Queue: 2 jobs
Job 1
Amino acid sequence: MSLLNFRQDGPPDLAERSAETAVTRLYEAHALDLVRLALVMVGDRPTAEDVVQDSFLGLYRRWGRLKDPDKALTYLRSSVLNNCRSVLRRRGRRLPGVQDPPVASAESRVLDREQGREVLDALRRLPHKQRETLVLRFVLDLSEEETAQVMRVSRVTVRSNTSRGRTALERMLGETP
Amino acid sequence: MNVERLLKDAAAAETRDVTRESLPPLNLPVGARRRRPAGRWTVPVAAVLTVVTVLAVTVVLRGVLRGPETLGAHEGPPFFLATHRKGGVGVFDSWTGRLIDDIPARTGHYAALALSGDRRTAFLAAETAPCRTRIDKVTLRRDGTVATRTALPGRYNAQVDEMAATADGGRVAIVFYDPGDCGDFDDLTVVEASSGTSRGWRLPPQTAESMDYVQSPAWAADGRSLFLATNAPETPRPERDGFLLRRLDTGTTDTTLFHAPVVLHSVPDLSSFRPSPDGRTIAAIQQNTDDLGRFGSISIMKVTLSDRPESERSSFPELARMTERQIAPAAPVDFRATLDATGRHLLVSSRHDRAVFRMDDGRFRRLPDLRRSDLGLIAW
């Protein structure tokens, strides 16, 4: 089972709460998963945390325009992906390594992490649409419909990007279909 | 181990140290929230809805009265190109599936391909290293065998997403993407095949709110105008946003993609655009899947470009349809589909079942001898 557990219940009933309270509760409920999402996308933790903070700040500023508070989580996921993309566009250099392995890491854990970095390096070379689709579908375990909502595209596009992204990753990683 | 599992494990390893306790607190600037006056959008939204309703009724009535046009007999393209797992591109007989010729990658692997309308010129994008792309021009004989292969002058410090060749193979449009570390590059480049000279266009600067993209380039018959799909403006109903089809005049000096006029706002997701010679209609593919993403059918749609492109279109006349029943027993997953230059011939590759299907003027066929399971991108 994945260590990432992004599938959680939707946000609590927030309609009657103030923006500050509502957004703070959303942060408490979902910040962990969103930082992990951002970390997978951008590759370093400080940036990932900044991205998530910016997304929550954006939600806070737009709270009055949010017609359906139940869509707040969808908005946040979408915003995090957008902010990650902006960060990646601004970078004119190779992605840095994520974090050093823990001092007490076992050899197997280091090997796992190195292998994982190879996979994520390949993931980060995909077109952003494919990269985001694969992360939402296979890392966050979102459904095709949920992924379509976050990315504001149709399910057909999600399916197309999934197929193309999977093919490209297989090729880069030397996997057999 | 499959890709899904690899990604899950890699993400888990990468985020192992991110715990709830280690997260910083949320910092909200109290009083910084902006408010929008209530009712500000009521009048414009009502006006737009009125226009959309009138035009939608008009379009539906016209479609009912005219009905779908009948496709005539056609031989169809004799061969198609497909990337394969060794990194090269194969030329395959599109009736038997036989490998006609192989174009191995000299360095790296081919990541995108485009075929001219006359099927005598192919452009292959070779990804030689991260953020390093070379474009090879391949001339093909009438039987599909390779005559020459040359590299276009220049290298591109980005990675290619899609390409489109003009009918005569004189120009190629290249859509680039940003894998995150390529630095500065154009989102779209048009290259003259004879000289290697190029021009670039860009999307507007990205913001936190924007989801801008460009995809599915397709040349008009004049070899100067380029159709391309971009994102539609966000609305409260994202599932209805669809995309905007723009017509870019590549002869102008403008370098901003979003300045290209919109010729269609489509709600359905279409791809593989094939403009008619007069540029008034476009054939395109619409893939229909169920809620689980399983193949239902692939249709060839006829899109008539509107004089009022700001009104969204929800449906189009269907010219032909390939159904799940026809491709059975192939598993309804992992397909690639493309139209030929005329828009009358559909090629569908099932990577899962080593099968390729074609539809010519509405007639379904299954290629008999294709036993490869490693076909990737296809061009017809």
Note: The two ends of chain B are 33 Å apart (CA to CA).
Job 2
Amino acid sequence: MAEDVLTIKHLSVDFKTLEGTVHAIRNVTLKLHPGEVLALVGESGSGKSVTTKTVMQLLPKNAEVVSGSVEYEGRDLLKLPEKELQKLRGNDLAEIFQDPMTALNPTMQVGKQIMEPLLQHQDINKEDAKTKALAIMEKVGIINAKERFKDFPYQFSGGMRQRIVIAMALICHPKILIADEPTTALDVTIQSQILKLIKQLKDELGTAVIFITHDLGVVAGIADRVAVMYAGRILEFGSVNDIFYHPQHPYTVGLLKSTPTMEMGGGDLESIPGTPPNLINPPAGDPFAYRNRYALKIDFKKLPPFFKVSDTHYAATWLLDKQAPKVHLTDKLDQRRQHYAKLVEKEAHQDD
Amino acid sequence: MRKYIIKRLLMMVLTLFIVATLTFFLMKMIPGSPLGNTMKLSKAQQLAVEKQYGLNKPVWQQYLSYMTGVLHGNFGMSYQYNSTTVASLIGHRVGPSILISFQALVLGVIVGILLGCVGALKKGTWADATSSTLAVIGISFPSFILAILLQYYLGFKLGWFPVASWDGFPSTILPTIALSAVPMAQVSRFVRTEMVEVLNSDYILLAKAKGLSVPQVVSHHALKNSIIPTLTLIGPLAVTLITGSMVVENIFSVPGIGELFINSVLANDYPVIMGLTMFYCLLLCGILLLTDVVYGLVDPRILSKEKGEH
């Protein structure tokens, strides 16, 4: 396998707040392979966005990186001076935000906003930049790009605005695209269009994507690999098939069980009891232990290491230890597996 | 847009009519008469003068004849200044007032925007604290106290500026500074709040994610969006300036309409009071209309809303 595009090692980030120090992420280690889509999955506050904001070095002022490194092309992004980072942002590393309604400058023509990264990073005159901007506007599916170049964001719908944000992010052909819940604020039909667009463009440009979401349905459609985050830690990571067909961590299983499907009919939707722990005083052991039906005593005391399930699949739960009792977590998941298999198949058909 | 402006202009005429009517009757309720203080006149002389100016008729008749005059563009003659029409009096006096008000507005708005930006960009530092302190002083200090302090220290003690004369640009400096304190303070507070909000918005983060430097982010994305809402302030500020300028004009002996207004009220110079009130009213309505129009031109979103509504 070719060298990784991005390597996050042992990353920990704190936030200083009035109530105390929030340990937002702890010991996060992730690798991004070239051209792949890595999905970061987890509920709100699990540290997904903090991880990617650290990569972009766009954390708010009260954040502090406690330890770790983010390697990109042999350099640690955390140690780069601001000037060097500015050269990378928008050029090598690009980001799509969650809410397209607020991500665009309301008083600037969209064309100008799309041209901005080009003019910033490349030695290019305005004419050529405009030509390129029009080309990418057409590519992301904005009809009548020429006439709409001078329009303002309020003249576009949410889905169209997200296309504009995507055009801005991809105009410099970045190596890494961070998509921070890019479809959460859109309705479902638009959502699938935008997902397809991201997939198509990243294949075309060979961009590696970190895709943040809490929607496992979206993950099934787009991701190659998945990392499940909870309370600032990664609990399990593996290929999409590993996570959907052989989930090992009780939290991953819980997430899968609480995703509604068409096949369920009128049955009750399972949920994970309790709420995530307060990250000002995170628990000592497995952060999920308090909500975990299958928690062992050691889960409350000692943080589980990553147990290897397969070459691609690792999970941090004591249930995988040799001495642990055997539990079968995935009874109800069997029917879901079939459903997801169908989903994946459907996506594959659409691509053909 | 044209429909909107015409509608506003019609509203202006109505406002003017109401203001003129109210002022006329309120003015007549003030004790004293234009000749009340003149003890030297005999009863017969007083009656003769009152008859000459139509002051012996019932108030409603005076009102009707005044309004008829106004409709024909005749605002009457001043009682105080012999054989001068109100229109020409105002015409002669309006220049200095507009000049210092305008200078004060420009100075106040520019300094205010700068202070506000510094406050927002350096939030929580000594620079922010200084800008806030200046703003608090500007808002809480009455302009006439500032005027007297400026006059005493910069004019009298140091002798840098004329104390109270009207002779070219140097003599406009102190009144301008005295008047600019309020707009400066209000604009700086407003811009600071707006900018802090804008700097926290998604599109600023996105601009940073595009690789723009902080100065670029501020000048390309934050500045315009922080200043646009400030435009709505300029109308009310102009109002404050024009009313505030009456006192300041008097302190610095600026031969403007503010001074004229005070003198005419003291002397019960009815036609001048009426003329000036209507002039102020017209000026304020005009400024408010102008700010709305400019706002529509600067912020593309407003215009489209107007189109939808009217």
Note: The mean pLDDT of chain B is 84.
